[in-house]
């Protein structure tokens, strides 16, 4: 069975990627086919391309009741050695809030990001940022770590190898990244964080329980990482018990991308629906996108969660943290932001600003 329709209504997907403005129709078709009511676009910035955030702002402007935006941080000033006038992290956060963004997306914590910006999140570079985000109560979707097998060449999945997601002894190690998060949360216990991909603790539910117990303002999302489904399928009774106990701390997410086909999007969402709602034993459908791997990789066992638990996971927990409706976008401020991002991209790439996604979005939002 390649597709599965949820029995729930009002589903909010808390982890979606908008790849390009040209994907507008595709994104809407995936949303409809997957039976999703609202999406949170997690907008990782690409400063050199002037992309990531602009296309998410575009969708929020066009469909204000449908799309939340979690804006990624722009580190161009740090990476360019102060030769660019880029707002600091606190100024960025305040600008995002004035603009009408719903939260912050952090990729800082993924080892590949650490390779590019070798600055621990405990560094003074982030100190004022953490304090301000805590003060504002801004929700964060934060990717920290990767699956354990990414540090083991013998177990590294082929799709991860293709993306250079394998790590060695010279890369930051998994426990170091967790230790840094612990330090941040100890200093700022009020931070409201959704840790993406179940915080990569799906193979160690006792540790996941301790983490949630120790940090009452944090949550996990379910964006797969197919290893999460395999790990939690080894003991479906224990997994079901965890989901019931922490029903208020788990946020639905798919990691859907606008660059997927509609069928791939429906299959990806349906895979998570089936795992949550049924007691089936099944494999990844062959129609799934390649990031979920081939069916032969493992067996998934459904948890058959109750409607009460599903209602919290599918929307209640996200809405309770972020808000029942997306915040209104200040279009003029969004245009200004996109123009600024286009100028930064031009300075970094020596390409005309007009060729960037940011410039395209600025022009469309300004009505030109």
CATH class: Alpha Beta
Distance between the termini: 46 Å
The chain-level mean pLDDT equals 95
CATH topology: TIM Barrel
Task: From the alpha carbons, calculate the radius of gyration and give it in angstroms.
Answer: 20 Å
Please report the number of helical segments.
Answer: 15
CATH second-level architecture: Alpha-Beta Barrel
Show unreliable segments.
none
The major beta sheet can be summarized as: 9 strands, parallel
Order of helices and strands: EHEHEHHEHHEHHEHEHHEEHEEHHH
Number of domains: 1
Query: What class would the helix/strand composition place it in?
Result: alpha/beta
Beta-strand content bin: 5-15%
Main sheet: strand order: 8-7-6-5-4-3-2-1-9
Helix content: 40-55%
Shape category: globular
Q: How many β strands by DSSP? A: 11
According to CATH, the homologous superfamily is: Metal-dependent hydrolases
Polypeptide structure, described:
With 368 residues, the protein is of the alpha/beta class. It has one domain (12-365): TIM Barrel, CATH 3.20.20. Helix content is 43%, strand content 11%. It has helices at residues 24-33, 53-62, 76-79, 89-99, 111-116, 127-136, 158-162, 174-187, 205-214, 226-233, 236-245, 262-277, 307-322, 331-349, 357-365; strands at residues 12-17, 38-43, 67-72, 103-106, 140-142, 193-195, 218-221, 250-251, 256-257, 281-282, 300-301. The strands form two sheets. Strands 8-7-6-5-4-3-2-1-9 form a nine-stranded parallel sheet, with helices on both faces. A two-stranded antiparallel sheet has the order 10-11. Helix 1 (24-33) runs parallel beside helix 12 (262-277), helix 2 (53-62) packs antiparallel against helix 14 (331-349) and helix 14 packs antiparallel against helix 15. The longest helix has 19 residues, at 331-349. It is globular and about 55 Å long. The mean pLDDT is 95.
């Amino acid at each position: 069975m390649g597709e599965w329709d949820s029995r729930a209504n009002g589903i909010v997907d808390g982890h979606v990627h908008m790849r390009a403005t040209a994907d507008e129709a595709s994104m809407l078709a995936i949303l409809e086919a997957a039976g999703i009511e609202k999406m949170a676009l997690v907008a990782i910035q690409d400063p050199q391309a002037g992309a990531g955030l602009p296309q998410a702002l575009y969708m929020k402007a066009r469909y204000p009741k449908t799309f939340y935006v979690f804006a990624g941080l722009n580190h161009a000033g740090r990476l360019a050695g102060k030769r660019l006038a880029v707002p600091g992290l606190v100024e960025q956060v305040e600008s995002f809030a004035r603009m009408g963004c719903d939260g912050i997306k952090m990729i800082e914590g993924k080892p590949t990001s650490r390779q590019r910006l070798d600055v621990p999140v405990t560094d003074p570079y982030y100190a004022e940022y953490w304090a301000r985000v805590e003060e504002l109560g801004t929700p964060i979707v934060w990717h920290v770590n990767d699956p354990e097998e990414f540090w083991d060449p013998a177990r590294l999945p082929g799709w991860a190898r293709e993306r250079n997601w394998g790590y060695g002894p010279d890369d930051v190690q998994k426990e170091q990244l967790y230790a840094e998060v612990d330090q941040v949360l100890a200093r700022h216990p009020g931070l409201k964080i959704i840790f993406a991909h179940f915080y990569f603790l799906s193979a160690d539910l006792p540790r996941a329980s301790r983490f949630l117990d120790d940090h009452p303002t944090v949550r996990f999302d379910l964006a797969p990482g197919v290893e999460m489904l395999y790990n939690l399928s080894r003991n479906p009774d224990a997994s079901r018990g965890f989901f019931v106990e922490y029903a208020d701390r788990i946020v639905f997410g798919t990691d859907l991308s606008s660059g997927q086909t509609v069928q791939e999007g429906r299959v990806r969402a349906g895979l998570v629906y089936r795992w949550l709602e049924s007691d089936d034993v099944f494999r990844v459908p062959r129609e799934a996108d390649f990031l979920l791997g081939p069916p032969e990789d493992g067996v998934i066992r459904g948890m058959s969660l109750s409607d009460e638990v599903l209602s919290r996971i599918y929307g209640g927990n996200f809405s309770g943290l972020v808000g029942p409706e997306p915040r209104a976008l200040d279009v003029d401020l969004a245009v200004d932001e996109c123009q600024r991002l286009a100028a930064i991209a031009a300075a970094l790439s020596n390409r005309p600003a007009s060729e960037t996604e940011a410039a395209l979005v600025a022009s469309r939002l300004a009505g030109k």
